[in-house]
């Protein structure tokens, strides 16, 4: 794909009022999600669940793209159409998770590095043939005693850049996802420091690997207090500090920032996105690429029962609509009340 095509896909993914649904849970992750609603993680149940999400009427008003897992991009909806075709016909771009997950970084207790570069060029070409227009690779950075180390940050940044360059060669827009985890009792200042150091290294490696910044998207964590920190930052503080941190390190050439939700509640993730957009004047689009914050309420309503599909779809549509409004800084608690 030519450079201008990568740019136009990246820009379309962050169109006004729209964002991305991350539905790329690997087998272990979806098993954990299903366990909480007492549903067995069989291929058929995973297919039915994703069918429920993807066929929700009207989500294309707020969802520009959906990230799929390897099994899903090869699966068919209930009506027999392959999932990428179902999405394409709604005007939603199919994407694909291509990393193989984080493994222990040898010699660095408590730290991980993401694997998946071996054979990636071939897999990307295959996914392109299956209809994918963009891809995603997640790196995880933990905060704790003496971590993150420079070695962990740089190893993950290097892998992200290798992945991004290979994606662009294959005609796929890379979503670059370095996630600084919210697990721990650290302060928001500590999260800001770790996020800034991580993003600096990531952009240095991306430039080193000649990645076209206009043809990629960044999927970072928001800058938050650690989950167990006794002093939790307020919504305006999170918005201000997150934007301040990103402005220091993310070049304006990047068309959009699509946040992960990282374990925040669905409403809080929407509140934070809304507050950032309400600040205005950003050099990039500020959008979402949520998994849990878009899916959790619908997953709980679904419970694996076909009879619950209409209710689950209504709830999913509502969360997509709220996040669509947050893209303009126009989300309000009245929207939640009206839907209750
Ligand atoms: C951090 O996880 C990503 C965003 O999800 P949240 O909004 O829930 O934080 C998500 O795309 C994640 O990468 C996928 O669910 C795949 O996760 P696994 O752990 O299965 O690779």
Question: How would you sum up this structure, described in words?
Answer:
- The protein is of the alpha/beta class and 340 residues long.
- It has a single domain (3-339), classed as Alpha-Beta Barrel (TIM Barrel), CATH 3.20.20.
- 48% of the residues lie in helices and 14% in strands.
- It contains 13 helices and 10 strands.
- It has helices at 3-13, 27-36, 43-54, 70-73, 83-90, 120-129, 150-170, 188-208, 235-249, 266-279, 292-302, 309-326, 333-339, and strands at residues 19-22, 63-68, 93-97, 102-104, 112-114, 134-141, 173-180, 217-218, 256-259, 285-290.
- It has an 8-stranded parallel sheet.
- It is globular, with a radius of gyration of 19 Å.
- 48% of the residues are buried.
- The model has no long low-confidence stretch (mean pLDDT 98).
- The protein binds 2-O-methyl-1,6-di-O-phosphono-D-mannitol (5MM).
- The site of 2-O-methyl-1,6-di-O-phosphono-D-mannitol has 16 residues, from helix 11.
């Amino acid at each position: 794909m030519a450079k201008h095509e990568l740019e136009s896909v990246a820009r379309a993914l962050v169109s006004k009022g729209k964002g991305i649904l991350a539905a790329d849970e690997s087998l272990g992750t979806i098993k954990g999600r299903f366990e909480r609603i007492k549903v067995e993680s069989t291929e058929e149940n995973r297919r039915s669940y994703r069918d429920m999400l993807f066929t929700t009427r009207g989500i294309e008003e707020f969802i520009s793209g959906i990230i799929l897992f390897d099994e899903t991009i090869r699966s068919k909806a209930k009506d027999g159409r392959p999932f990428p075709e179902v999405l394409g016909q709604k005007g939603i771009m199919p994407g694909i998770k291509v990393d193989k997950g984080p493994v222990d970084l040898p010699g660095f207790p408590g730290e991980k590095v993401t694997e998946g570069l071996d054979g990636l060029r071939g897999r990307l070409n295959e996914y392109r043939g299956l209809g994918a227009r963009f891809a995603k690779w997640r790196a995880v950075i933990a905060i704790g005693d003496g971590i993150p180390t420079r070695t962990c940050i740089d190893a993950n940044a290097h892998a992200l850049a290798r992945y991004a360059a290979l994606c662009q060669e294959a005609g796929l827009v890379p979503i670059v996802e370095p996630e600084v985890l919210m697990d721990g009792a650290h302060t928001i200042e500590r999260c800001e420091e770790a996020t800034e150091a991580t993003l600096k290294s990531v952009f240095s490696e991306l430039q080193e690997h000649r990645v076209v910044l206009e043809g990629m998207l960044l999927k970072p964590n928001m800058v938050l207090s650690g989950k167990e920190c006794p002093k939790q930052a307020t919504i305006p503080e999170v918005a201000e500090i997150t934007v301040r941190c990103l402005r220091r390190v993310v070049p304006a050439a990047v068309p959009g920032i699509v946040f992960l939700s990282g374990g925040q509640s669905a409403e809080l993730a929407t509140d934070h996105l809304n507050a950032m957009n309400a600040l205005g004047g950003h050099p990039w689009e500020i959008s979402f690429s949520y998994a849990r914050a878009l899916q959790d309420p619908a997953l709980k309503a679904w419970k694996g029962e076909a009879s619950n599909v209409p209710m689950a779809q209504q709830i999913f549509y509502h969360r997509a609509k709220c996040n669509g409004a947050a893209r303009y800084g126009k989300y309000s608690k009245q929207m939640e009340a009206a839907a209750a």
